[in-house]
Amino acid sequence: MKIIRLSSFLFDQLTHILIEKPMEAPFLLKLISSKENAFIGSLKLSPFFIGSKVFIVVLSFLFKTPLGKNLCIKTPDALIMAFIIAFFSGLAGMKLLK
Question: pTM of the prediction?
Fold first, then answer.
C-alpha cells in the first residue's frame, strides 16, 4: 500500500512540475526548424551529426572494449584520435551530400 501511495505522490509532483514550467525546445530543434525548409536544414547539419556520433563510438570503443584496454592509449591521445576520425567522417558526409 505504501508503494502505491509513494508512486502516486511522485506522479502528482511530476505532473505539477510539468504543468507549472513548460519545457523549452532543444537548441538543435530550434536551429533546424528556424529554416524555411526544415528538411534541407537538417540535411545541412547531418555532417555534424555524423561526426559527433562517430566521436562517441570511437571513444567508447577505445575506453570500453578489451582491445582498447590492451592498446594502452592515454586519454589525450584517445581524444585526439577520436576527434580526427570524427572530423574525417564529417567531411565524408559532406562529400556524400554534394
Answer: 0.62
Phi, psi (rounded to 5 degrees) for 74: -75, 165
3-state secondary structure of 25: coil
Residue of 88, 23, 17, 33 whose CA lies nearest to 58: 88
DSSP state of 72: T
Match 589525450 to its residue by C-alpha cell.
Answer: 76
Q: How far apart are CA 63 and CA 93, in angstroms?
A: 25
| Domain ranges within the chain, ordered by starting residue | 2-97
Q: What is the pLDDT of residues 27-68, one digit of tens each?
A: 666 666 666 777 777 788 888 889 999 999 999 988 888 888
Rg (CA), the chain: 21
